[in-house]
Amino acid sequence: MNKEDLLYLIPTKRIKAFDGMAVTADVWELAHEYTRQQQRFHLMLSHRHGILTGLNIIASIPPDTSIYILPGVAVDNWGQTIILSQPLSYDIGTSAEGLIYILLHYAESRPRADKSRGQEGAPMFVHDEFKVSAVTSLPDTPFVEIARVVRSSRTAVLKNAENPLHPDLDEIDLRFRYHAAALPPKVVRIAQNYLGGLTHAQHGEGLNYLAKTLNRESKYRAVVDLDISLENANLSHYTLIYLTAQQRFDLPRLALNNLYNYLKQGGTVLMETCQREQTGEPPAAASFRDMLASFGFTLTDAKLGDPLLADPFLFAYPPRGFEPHGGLQMGEGIILSTYDYAGAWAGLQREKPPTREEIRAIFEWGLNIVTHALHRRETYLNRDQRPAATTLSKQLSAFMEQPE
Fold first, then answer.
1. Which of 39, 119, 240, 278 is 20 to 30 Å from the Cα of 230, by its Cα?
2. pTM for the complete prediction?
């Protein structure tokens, strides 16, 4: 539900009481429904949805197909408050495999009398309730995601993640749940892949440090997936793809096609060379340029005034990374760098340990890269969703003509 739709649902009139007014059941319901809906829309527009407290998820001991949901409170994406006051065991069963979302939903009981009130005319009560579901696609109805898991088979048991930053198959993934706040963070998914046989762990470690910094100091929630397959992964899930190589390489045709389609659909790829002990330009740079030539892409040097260098932090030129002397070119969703920024995000520099100011600058640069990638993706997704001026005029007129 977008904000334009909400304009038609927010209550704009309330009952004004006066002495002698007939208070029927309908009048009473209308009076309280106004307050209830105002609270809902306040939560939707000011705090939005997410977990308020608790609702921790743990695997069964010994592991089986069930999970335990601990008590807590959440607000769904329709502003409805969900309360779980007691621990709950939930079995996801054996009907699905692959990516499974575990969701919490708001529900209400039918009106019923309080058994402790036996007198005639006693009020009826509607009780707040909830339900849990495990689904393979997100519904259009309101929900709060409390976990997800990529299940290897329909009978696979569920386990707690050994590394919560990178859950494995059949491990409970809590990276995509977030807490309700003034505004929910935008989820930024970053994929990483080593090319040409390169396996330096520092690059993945640097991306993890970048994600931690973004999660702590920015409006984004960053999730890093290491060593993704360019042939088999759904690249459209990712805001940014990070590729690094040292030696020359050749990608399979399927991987090239997937990268090309990803870029044409608003994706961004950060390509970096890893020099390490070599001097001169790394051989991988030629492979990256050959790839881009096959795409028909042309790059230009980054310069002052480019959005990448100005949002949200202003840089006169790209900062140094692990390599003190490098270059950076960009265009068509590509950022081609020989600075080795992921090495710097891991706290390393070739000549000397980086200063605190240099570390701060390199993480600010990382936020610029992520912001650039998000803007490019959102521009692509919104290209066909802008209503015509006449449509906007009609919507505004309809809103202004609502009765008081």
1. 278
2. 0.68
